[in-house]
Amino acid sequence: MGAPDLLVTVEAKDAAISPDELVRINKDKDLQALRSAGGAQGLIHAANLGTDLHHGLPVERVEANRARFGANVFPGRPPPSFLAGFLDAIQDPMIVILLIVAIITIIVGAAVPEQRAHNGWSEGIAVLVTALVVVFIAAGQDYNKELQFQKLNKLKDLIDIKVIRGGKQCVVPNTELVVGDIVLLDTGDKIVADGLCVLNQGLVVDEASLTGESDPIKKNTEDDPWCRSGTTVNEGAGRILLVAVGPESEWGRTMALVSEAGDDMTPLQEQLKDLATKISKFGVTVAVVCFLALFIKWLVVNKGWNNDKVNDNGPLQFLLYAITITVVSIPEGLPLAVTLTLAYSMKKMMKDNNFVRVLSACETMGGATAICSDKTGTLTENRMTVVEGWFAGRSYGALPAPSDLPDSALTLLAHNCALNSKAFLVDLETGVIDFVGNRTECALLVLLRKMGLDYVKVRESREADLVKLYGFTSARKMASVLVRDPASAGGLRLYNKGAAEWVLKRCVSWVDGSGAIQPMSEEKLAEFTEEVTAMAKRGLRCICLTYRDYEETDASRPEDFFENPDQVDNGLIAYAIVGIKDPVRQEVPDAVATCQRAGITVRMVTGDNIHTARHIARECGLFDEAQGHVALEGPVFRTMPAAELMDMLPRLRVLARSSPEDKLTLVRLLKGQGEVVAVTGDGTNDAPALKESDVGLAMGIAGTEVAKEAADIIILDDNF
């Protein structure tokens, strides 16, 4: 499988499909040309991509493909010029008024002898210099701000992508991708270059950003393998072979047709600009009225026009009064001061690892009165470790040795943790293990290592047996994978893992210490439930690992049976329950206390067990029964009468086993009470709550690209 001799080594000139032809095939979604080339595998040879569907692109081939097919970068706007900013600033209505006033003052001061004798023109020069100074400062600030925003936008557009290179799974920035790369996709991922689906594990893609169609599209390797840049993965997982990057991709062509709009002003900037305009109009009106009143009085006193008294406290003097009123009334520095302040705030927040995507969030966050925070990775370290559990009929206060478990249990453990997961571990040179992907799944992979089991070998040996992947969702609280397995009685085996109390309800059997399967009696279920509750009260996340076998062909089964995970994940056999420790971040209790002193109520919204959530909330200092604080579970929260819920809302501190819909409902209820709500989120399904909140904060490390796109601020280190 994926032997090195599959790699193509011929020269580019010998390729049957040129880079331009490859672009055309991708652009037109020419399925006939793809099939004529022999599908994805044939295309690799015909276009001389030099890659391998199993081992990916050799590291030494990356630069050659980048030179031949282009880099995955999009041409941005040209750098702004100071002159353009100067010309734009000088057209501001307030500046125009000041310039006109200055010119009139200079002319009058120089032309009229009485004014010239007193250097009357100097006032006009002063006004002119003031206006030009404001223009220069505004142009300089806009120039610097534009350069800063371009740098920040590059950071905003930088996404870590999971790929296979040189036979190893690794993470590279999206700008480093090249044609021929094999990209690993999972639920919530953003597709950043055009590719062909070469491994489909229930891959469903949302193409609304390109096509406007709201219905997600199911991908497959035969009839619809085209995966477009700019789209996101709604469900499932898969692998794609990149065939177009940068300007040649679908998103690149779209961006080339759309000129990027400038940065919008924040609400405060708009309000202050409007206020400054109103003050200026009022000042000009007062100046005109004063001039007319004095001029009319002068006409009455002098019984008409008198040339001898024009310069003697006459119309020219009245004009200078009006000019003075106009100059004094124009607050030309007010919007500029706000821009400088917000730019400073952005820089300061960036130093604190908070990347501001929407400038107005700097204003709004300062007025927040409620924070709805995730638990995992935000309040906790997100460095999960399996510390105890129940394995094959016996409880262990610490991890058991491999020799303590029957071989059948070890095999089940290895296959479930390795195949029912898209996460992987990267061993850094420092000796630290870097977690890539879901942190719970990474903890299970570390468990395999401690048991002497190699998850990489399991995946490589069983990759061809994968049938369908059922990804984790907040509603199901579990994930499963269906594989062909010779050890299965019927040919198909389902490996399932998820929240222990949810999974146990679907179990009909359990594996004892000898490896024998026993029926799940009510007494045994109660015993397991007690075990889970005890671990949860110690602050552990409890994951139950199960399996079951299916007949590959069954006439009594509906044709679409395996399309519905709720049908598939039933009749399960439990063989392990693990307790995963995720310590509270050291700085969180002080941060929560600081928020509370500032009058901000911090609430935890989590999908974890209520006992685990309470324990962690107490450690964070945001939950105290003595103060009347309340913890609710999602199912109770969503069925509670409105009047009772509104009465309890001020005391609610923990919402456990919650769904994204529960979080969205909570945000709306709090906003309805007049609260300014900030929400943290990391999952694809958190996007509605992030959008609904006054300030949405997405996790930079654990957050999916969908969550980041919906957020106003990205917390780069996931730290509360």
UniProtKB/TrEMBL annotation:
Q: Superkingdom of this entry's organism?
A: Eukaryota
| Top enzyme class | translocase
Q: Which UniProt keywords apply?
A: ATP-binding, Calcium, Calcium transport, Ion transport, Magnesium, Membrane, Metal-binding, Nucleotide-binding, Translocase, Transmembrane, Transmembrane helix, Transport
One Pfam family for this entry, by name? E1-E2_ATPase
Does the keyword section mention Coiled coil?
A: no
A GO molecular-function descriptor: ATP binding
Query: GO cellular-component terms in the record?
Result: endomembrane system; plasma membrane
* Domain Cation-transporting P-type ATPase N-terminal, first and last residues per copy: 40-110
**What stretches pass through the bilayer?**
94-112, 124-144, 282-300, 320-344
Compartments (UniProt record):
Endomembrane system
Give membrane topology per the record: Multi-pass membrane protein
rRNA-binding among the record's keywords? no
Q: What broad class describes the main subcellular location of this protein?
A: membrane
Q: Which reaction does it catalyse?
A: Ca(2+)(in) + ATP + H2O = Ca(2+)(out) + ADP + phosphate + H(+)
Q: Which InterPro entries match?
A: ATPase_P-typ_cation-transptr_N, ATPase_P-typ_cyto_dom_N, ATPase_P-typ_P_site, ATPase_P-typ_TM_dom_sf, ATPase_P-typ_transduc_dom_A_sf, ATPase_P-type_domA, HAD-like_sf, HAD_sf
EC number per UniProt = 7.2.2.10
Task: Give the UniProt family note.
Answer: Belongs to the cation transport ATPase (P-type) (TC 3.A.3) family. Type IIB subfamily.
Q: Indicate what this protein is called per its UniProt record.
A: P-type Ca(2+) transporter
